[in-house]
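Re: [ENG-882] Designed sequences occasionally contain unexpected residues at chain ends

Forwarding the minimal case from QA. C-alpha cells:
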C-alpha cells in the first residue's frame, strides 16, 4: 500500500525547468547556421506551345546555405532582444544541378556571397508596432538600405520554447510558422544577378524546397510538437516532430526575378508550388545562458511546381513546366 505514495513522490521529484530566452546584457554569441536541400526529379513535363521538350527523369539538385553571425545583446526583455547588434560574418549560398538535359538550362548554379557580408546591423524592438527597426551600424556608403528589408531578427530559436515550467517527457504544440525561422534562418538576402545567365534560350528558375520564397513559408500548415526529453546540468534537450505542408502562388516571385531580363520579357500566368516536409529535430537549450546551444533537423521533402508563361523571344503561345521532386532537407546550428 506504500507504493502509491512513493510513486507520487517520485513524480514530484522529476526534474523540471522554465526554459526562457533571457541572455545577459552584453552577452556576445557567435552563431553558425547551415542548411542543405538535396532533391531528385520524379516527374516532369516541359512544353513549348504544343511541342514537348525532352526532359529525362533523375535530375539531381542541391542547394547549400551557410550563415555566420556575431550577435551582441545590448538589452533583452519580455522573451526577446530589445536591442541587438549583429555582424554578418559569412553569407554564402551554393547551388548545383546534375544530370540536366542538354536542352535545359537552370540558372544560378555556383557559389554566391551576399553583399551584406561584413556589415553590422542594429535591430531595435518597437513596442508600439511589435516589429524590429533595422539600421546599419557602419557608415559604409556601399551598404544599401534595401538589403535590410527582408532580414529576420530571430536567430535564437526561441519560438520553439514552451510557455511556463515543463518537466521531462512533457510535450507542447508548436505553431507551424514557428519553424519558418528554422527553415530559412536569417530571412531573405539579396544575392544580386546570376553570373552564368545569358539570353540565348529560355529558362525557368526552379524553386527548391526549404529555399522557396518567403510566401511559401507563411503558408505552412500541419502538426508540430516538442517534447522535453532530458535535463542534465545546464542543458535541456528538446525533440521536435513535424508534418507540414504549404501551397503558394509564386507569380510575383518569378515575375520579379525573371520577368524582364534585357531583351527578354516573360509574363507568368500561373506558378503554383507545393511543399511537404516531415521529420524530426533536436534542440539543446542552455538553461544557464538562456540561449540555444545547438540544433539539428532532418526531414523528408516533396515539392511540385506548375508554371505557365510566355517569352518574347520564343514564337509560341505559351511555355508550361511541371515538376515533382523528392529529397531530404537538413539544418544544423550552433551558438557559442
Amino acid at each position: 500500500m506504500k507504493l502509491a505514495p512513493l510513486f507520487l513522490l517520485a513524480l514530484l521529484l522529476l526534474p523540471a525547468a522554465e526554459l526562457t530566452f533571457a541572455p545577459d546584457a552584453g552577452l556576445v554569441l557567435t552563431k553558425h547556421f547551415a542548411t542543405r536541400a538535396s532533391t531528385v526529379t520524379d516527374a516532369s513535363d516541359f512544353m513549348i506551345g504544343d511541342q514537348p521538350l525532352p526532359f529525362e527523369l533523375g535530375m539531381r539538385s542541391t542547394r547549400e546555405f551557410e550563415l555566420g553571425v556575431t550577435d551582441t545583446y545590448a538589452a533583452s526583455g519580455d522573451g526577446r532582444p530589445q536591442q541587438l547588434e549583429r555582424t554578418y560574418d559569412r553569407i554564402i549560398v551554393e547551388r548545383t544541378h546534375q544530370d540536366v538535359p542538354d536542352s535545359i538550362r537552370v540558372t544560378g548554379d555556383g557559389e554566391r556571397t551576399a553583399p551584406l557580408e561584413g556589415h553590422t546591423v542594429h535591430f531595435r524592438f518597437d513596442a508600439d508596432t511589435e516589429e524590429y527597426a533595422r539600421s546599419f551600424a557602419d557608415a559604409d556608403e556601399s551598404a544599401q538600405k534595401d538589403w535590410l528589408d527582408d532580414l529576420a531578427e530571430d536567430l535564437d530559436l526561441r519560438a520553439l520554447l514552451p510557455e511556463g515550467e515543463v518537466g521531462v517527457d512533457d510535450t507542447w504544440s508548436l505553431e507551424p510558422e514557428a519553424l519558418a525561422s528554422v527553415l530559412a534562418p536569417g530571412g531573405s538576402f539579396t544575392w544580386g544577378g546570376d553570373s552564368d545567365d545569358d539570353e540565348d534560350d529560355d529558362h525557368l528558375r526552379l524553386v527548391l524546397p526549404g529555399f522557396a520564397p518567403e510566401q511559401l513559408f507563411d503558408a505552412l500548415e500541419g502538426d508540430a510538437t516538442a517534447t522535453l526529453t532530458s535535463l542534465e546540468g545546464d542543458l535541456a534537450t528538446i525533440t521536435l516532430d513535424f508534418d507540414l505542408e504549404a501551397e503558394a502562388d509564386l507569380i510575383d516571385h518569378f515575375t520579379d526575378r525573371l520577368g524582364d531580363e534585357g531583351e527578354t520579357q516573360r509574363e507568368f500566368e500561373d506558378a503554383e508550388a507545393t511543399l511537404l516536409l516531415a521529420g524530426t529535430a533536436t534542440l539543446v537549450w542552455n538553461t544557464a545562458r538562456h540561449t540555444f546551444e545547438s540544433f539539428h533537423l532532418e526531414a523528408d521533402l516533396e515539392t511540385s511546381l506548375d508554371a505557365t508563361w510566355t517569352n518574347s523571344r520564343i514564337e509560341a503561345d505559351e511555355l508550361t513546366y511541371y515538376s515533382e521532386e523528392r529529397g531530404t532537407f537538413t539544418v544544423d546550428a550552433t551558438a557559442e
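QA comment: On inspection the terminal residues look reasonable. Helices lie at 3-12, 180-183, 214-218, 251-258. Proposing we downgrade this to a documentation issue.
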